[in-house]
Design a protein that fits this description.
The chain is mainly β. It is built from one helix and seven strands. Strand 4 and strand 5 form a beta hairpin.
Amino acid sequence: MWHLRRVEGESMMPSYSPGQTIVITTARHFKVGDVVVAFMNGKEVLKRIVDMHEGSVFLEGDNHEKSKDSRHYGWLADRHVVGKVTFPKKHLK
């Protein structure tokens, strides 16, 4: 299943900009480097998977100065991942 989301905030810049529309899929196959939408600290967020371990993911924003992420909240159970971004795909360089 596919869903549209609008990027909020600057935590994923320069990969994704505030107001940009993204497409996510609810497929449950994630890997390190994927950008995902997840429920973190009671709200839906857009972050990159930087590590995975036994059903948990460690998420960070690409813009570390503007991101509240797993560095603040710790590991997140992968069941809290809503889906991964399929368009546009952006990888860190």
